[in-house]
Amino acid sequence: MSAESEQDVTSRVAPAQTMRIWSVVLAVIDGPSRGARAAVGSEIARIGTADGNDLVLTDRTVSRFHCELLVRGNTILIRDCGSTNGTLIDGVRVREAEIPPGTLVRIGGSAFRVELGDEPAFVEVSGRSHFGELVGASVEMRRVYAILERLALTDATVLVQGETGTGKDVLARSLHAASPRAAQPFVAVDCGA
Question: pTM value?
């Protein structure tokens, strides 16, 4: 191939609409990492001992990927990620729970408080109620549409993961139809088969 046909192309993508969400601060108040703080300005925060988590703890009784916090508008959810020692709120082990700001969460031998941040955070949402064959106007679907709108403008290869029956093929076909390659053949590759 010639150097001309292998040139990199950079495209500017217009920003999507945004939705205001709470920003949260995770403040460790008990355990080996006491005093640590993590400000979360996105819709998901991961907590555990593995590098790459938003809040990295040094507590040996905390799992690598222990739990995650999901901020959806003005709602905060905490979800245990299959940890060994569990995620406890008010002494009760939870898999997933909606929690108010100020909640004390205990994981392993550590505890952290979920506090509101000083400034709100913003996440991208689409103005659409559908994208190709996908239909839904919930905030979660509009967040997915915003991602798909941006991806459709690129030449990126996309891997769609999910459980059986969740609509991965519908999403892939809708993304293909919205892309500059829509006139080209669509080939789905089932990586789980």
Answer: 0.60
